[in-house]
Amino acid sequence: MALDVTWAVKWLTLSAQAMAEHRVELIELDRAIGDSDHGENMDRGFQAVLDKLAESPPETPGAALKLTAMALMSKVGGAAGPLYGTAFLRAATTLGDAAYIDAAALAAALAAARDGIVARGKAEAGDKTMVDAWTPAVDAAAAAAADGDTLAVLIAAAEAAEAGAVATDPLVARKGRASYLGERSAGHRDPGAASSALILRAAAGAAA
Amino acid sequence: MKKLINDPRAVVDESVEGFGLAHADLVTVSADPKYVTRKDAPVAGKVGLVSGGGSGHEPLHAGFVGRGMLDAAVPGAVFTSPTPDQIIPATLAVNSGAGVVHIVKNYTGDVLNFETAAEMVQAEGVEVRTVLVNDDVAVEDSLYTAGRRGVGGTVLVEKIAGAAAERGDDLDAVAATGDRVNQNVRTMGVALSACTVPHAGSPSFDLEDNEIEIGIGIHGEPGRHKIAMENADGITSRLLEPILSDLGAASGEKVLLFVNGMGGTPLSELYIVYRRAAQILAERGLSVERSLVGNYITSLEMQGCSISVLRLDDEMTALWDAPVHTPALRWGV
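^ Those are the sequences you sent over. The predicted structure of the assembly is below.
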């Protein structure tokens, strides 16, 4: 099944719901190794996305993601704002004006999003950042895309992102504010990886 | 959580609104997007100075907007960097054609948002230079971290670069002066208690009654280690030691000594710290030519302090002494 703008809008709506539901959990993860603002910022950012979607309904999936990028960049702040903003913007650019997205285009858009995060944040896999959720997600999506089923691509990405987020638990942070904790950052999940997993799970939920 | 607030989500809006009302003679407040400019901005022919960062560090940065210091300040949410849609209009509002210097503390969020904003403003033809402040010696090995944080030294960079801009230095010269201050200042902080971010509602880290956190940033985030509580002289030595070994100032050199409160420590205690710090500097043969003591870059109601030592040359000293008229720092006028 090719994905259209209805899927994109549903994805963003489910993402906003996930951020509201998990707001406190993300604040707690960030309190442990950062500065307690991640859940609040993501909730505020995605509420702004919902406002924008209502204000000017997009006509293509790419337009929906571009609007999301702008809203997140202007409302989230912190490191997450520019990182997610860049991710959605790169994905939107890759999709262009296409009305429908097939499995290959979807996998390419997810890869572009990940590359945007890496370029902006200069983080590598293993640094205990959102890259540790996105990289396995992109790899799993690419493998699943061979069968041509978009839902399978999204489920594979979501599951890999969740596993990737869990896998940040024992890591020592080398980027972002958690890096100042050094060894003491081990034993805590990276909040950015956790929110990334929620967003990718929402993408799969919207296609189901 | 007991705080003098109405709604945790309105803290920054209402605080900035009150700030604007209280200092209407010095500043203009833009509510949406949120930023504060000097009343007479843009000043013809003058390089604009813009700084910003998370709220909760008052009086940094809006308190330093005015003659001889910043032209604009951009407050983010509490402990969260501002966003490009605030930084861009603030930058444009203070650009008189001579270009704008962004003073940015080395925290990932601040760097990314200012970097994005600078790219977009430059695309519109406004020249921007960035002075990155990274004075915190608590961060030992920057190979495995995001690098040293920008903390107390930011106040000194803003004052001295602000004076350089006020006297008419050009864009590159103002940025070079800011960089020079940053290269010559080192800071280290201590937390005696955590603070509570309004929207989080619980303290931002756990500290037992008899514990203190040595080597904090400006959000209480740890740098080196937790230790058992010590007396003021002991803590002062612990803070000053890494500053002096990193700064490498030789006997006979002139310095500025800055003891900064984190928001919840009385001035009397800051002076006790200052006393011991001044004694240690004298023992090392360093001459304290200028000083600053008080709450200038805070972490809400956190107890604790930071010590900054700036190695002075004659030009920096003259720029430090130059008139400044802002809500939180004022002399010579």
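Chain B has a mean pLDDT of 95. The radius of gyration of chain B is 19 Å.

Shout if you want it in another format.
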